[in-house]
Amino acid sequence: xxxxxxxxxxxxxxxxxxxxxxxxxxxxxxxxxxxxxxxxxxxxxxxxxxxxxxxxxxxxxxxxxxxxxxxxxxxxxxxxxxxxxxxxxxxxxxxxxxxxxxxxxxxxxxxxxxxxxxxxxxxxxxxxxxxxxxxxxxxxxxxxxxxxxxxxxxxxxxxxxxxxxxxxxxxxxxxxxxxxxxxxxxxxxxxxxxxxxxxxxxxxxxxxxxxxxxxxxxxxxxxxxxxxxxxxxxxxxxxxxxxxxxxxxxxxxxxxxxxxxxxxxxxxxxxxxxxxxxxxxxxxxxxxxxxxxxxxxxxxxxxxxxxxxxxxxxxxxxxxxxxxxxxxxxxxxxxxxxxxxxxxxxxxxxxxxxxxxxxxxxxxxxxxxxxxxxxxxxxxxxxxxxxxxxxxxxxxxxxxxx
Length: 402
Ligand SMILES: *Cc1c(COP(=O)(O)O)cnc(C)c1O
Known about the structure:
The protein is 24% helix and 20% strand. By secondary structure, the chain is α/β, with parallel strands linked by helices. The strands form two sheets. Strands 1, 2, 11, 12, 13, 14, 15, 16, 17 and 18 form a ten-stranded mixed β-sheet that branches. Strands 3, 4, 5, 6, 7, 8, 9 and 10 form an eight-stranded parallel β-sheet that branches. It is elongated.
């Protein structure tokens, strides 16, 4: 049985489900089961990445569902298997968690400006640092635990793996709680991950004598957890999945579940005749008389124009094609093939399950040439999120830091 949860702060006024034009159903129980699968496969506690509003699914409901502790709330059973920490990318994201009373460990994996460090301290987060001056500034602020970011080939953030010797002294004086790196192509199954691991191993070897023996090593994102057939080299203590929690990218290897269902209602219907066009730019012409349904979902909701003339939706249990250009608020479907026809008020599913049919996030992204990350994160807040929990028992797997 589906139990709707109390909504978090609505950005747009909420209306009755019956009158909603478009909405995103988020299955929190599926997210929890995905977290358990990722944790079981990694054999490690998680830093659950909830940046970018939990990849568009809603950060606060997700951290609650994953068992994060909140001030003034008694610790529930589910907390035993809660992630070790939650990963954010900005101070605002951390502030959102703290303002809601979340007392979990929070790791910010994006570099911060020096002047942001006092706010980071006030928010009681663990920053990712890698410059001597910021490490010393953090220490002077008595900031507490921090993690050393090592660049082993992503060339995005962190100290280069072959330059960590320059941090030897500062790391010895201000020891980090953790050391981590990030893979650039773990999903490709090429040799790059092994090369990055070798770089990481060398960096850890160089810093070894200066690091506390308790230092927490972490590197695996979702794709690396899925790809891994041998234990992490060097041995890791934590894993940092993001997209896998939300049921994309590493879905088959880990048997992850679909977590989001994007739905919208049919708001208009018409026939168009041979040669007539549909939508902006007239990029689709009816080959013969066609039944066209207008659905209240557009690129203003995150249904990107990449779906124009390419995407599909499930309507009355059948797949029907998007015809013409996706506009800001509406998209048209060719529903001529629906034997029983179609009516205003019908619900079309653009991502997710509808009865026997399913459009997984990965399949949808691939079919329109988008990354599943962008597809999820691009779902706009104009689409209200509806949260569902299906069960209390999540079949939790316990994992402790080795
Ligand atoms: C986003 C991010 C992750 C999660 O990656 P996924 O591919 O979503 O699993 C892990 N670590 C860092 C540093 C990140 O920025």
